[in-house]
């Protein structure tokens, strides 16, 4: 390779790196930290309230994703929301459910209405049935937690 080709390749790589950094900075400043008395621990901001704890994590370079989460007081339900960003035009949701009857926890993806989504799951058919039962039993509490979380970050 001659000098001119090497120079062009290096210049192209440098331009792409600069563009990525600009996009990352724009994305970073679009993430809205939650308001309130949040304490930072291990890169996560959290605020414990009487009936729940809310957390958020700003995008960490080079990742474009940050998230918001809410945890109920007995830690049996957690909702995590990865809000839309420059590369993801839709928010994504995950739900952690703890079943104290069989001492088992489940982490599943759900849609914006907190309905179970099978994509990306490694659960057995029996576990899917158990998750569906837990979702139905706790639907009201899950929806309340989601609305509480959304009221904090959708301002």
Describe this structure as you would to a colleague.
This protein has helices at residues 3-30, 125-137, 139-153, and strands spanning 39-41, 44-48, 52-57, 67-72, 77-82, 92-99, 104-110. The longest helix is centred in the N-terminal third of the chain and has 28 residues, at 3-30. The protein is 36% helix and 26% strand. The protein has one domain. The mean pLDDT is 92. The protein has a seven-stranded antiparallel beta sheet, with helices on one face. By secondary structure, the protein is α+β, with helices and mostly antiparallel strands.
Short description:
It is built from three helices and seven strands, in the order αβββββββαα. It is of the alpha+beta class and 155 residues long.
Strand content: 25-35%
Number of domains: 1
- Tell me, rounded to a whole number, the average pLDDT: 92
For the CA atoms, what is the radius of gyration? 20 Å
What is the makeup of the main sheet?
Answer: 7 strands, antiparallel
Low-confidence stretches: none
Blueprint of the fold:
Blueprint: H1 3-30, E1 39-41, E2 44-48, E3 52-57, E4 67-72, E5 77-82, E6 92-99, E7 104-110, H2 125-137, H3 139-153
Antiparallel strand pairs: 1-2, 2-3, 3-4, 4-5, 5-6, 6-7
Give a quick set of tags describing it.
155 residues; 3 helices; elongated; 7-stranded antiparallel beta sheet; alpha+beta
